[in-house]
Amino acid sequence: MSKRNHTKTYSDHAFSILAKTLINQVVFLGLHYAYDFFPTTFVSLFSGINKSIFQHMKIGYFSYMITNVIELMFRREKKYLKNFITTRIFTTVLLPWVMVLLYFLPEAVYG
Predict the structure, then answer these.
(1) What's the rounded Cα separation, in Å, for the pair 42 and 11?
(2) What's the CA angle centered on 35, arms 29 and 36, to 5 degrees?
(3) DSSP for residue 4
(4) Of 61, 70, 53, 59, whose CA–CA distance to 92 is shortest?
(5) DSSP H stretches of helix in the chain
(6) pLDDT tens digit string along 27-46?
(7) pTM of the model
C-alpha cells in the first residue's frame, strides 16, 4: 500500500459545511423568536417582528453574519483572512437576494 499525499480540504478545517449549516439554523431560530421574548426596539433591529418575507430576509442576513463571525473565531489558519472576510461579506450581502428569488419566484411563475 502506498501512502497518499494528504492535502488540506475544507473538511479539515474546524467548520465543515454541516456544522456551519446547523449553527446558522440555531442562530436563525434564536433571532426569529427573540422579539417574542424581548420586545424592545433594539431587538427589533435584527429580529423578526412579524411574518413578512422582509423580516425573514433580515433574520437570514443577521444570522448568516453571526455564523460567519463564529466561524472566524474558530478559524485555524489566519493567512487567508482577507479572502475569508471578502467572500463572507459578499455571500452575506447576496443571501437576502437569493431568499427573494426562492420565495417570490414560485409565486410569480405559478400565481
Answers:
(1) 37
(2) 90
(3) P
(4) 61
(5) 17-37, 41-44, 53-73, 81-110
(6) 999 999 999 999 999 999 99
(7) 0.77
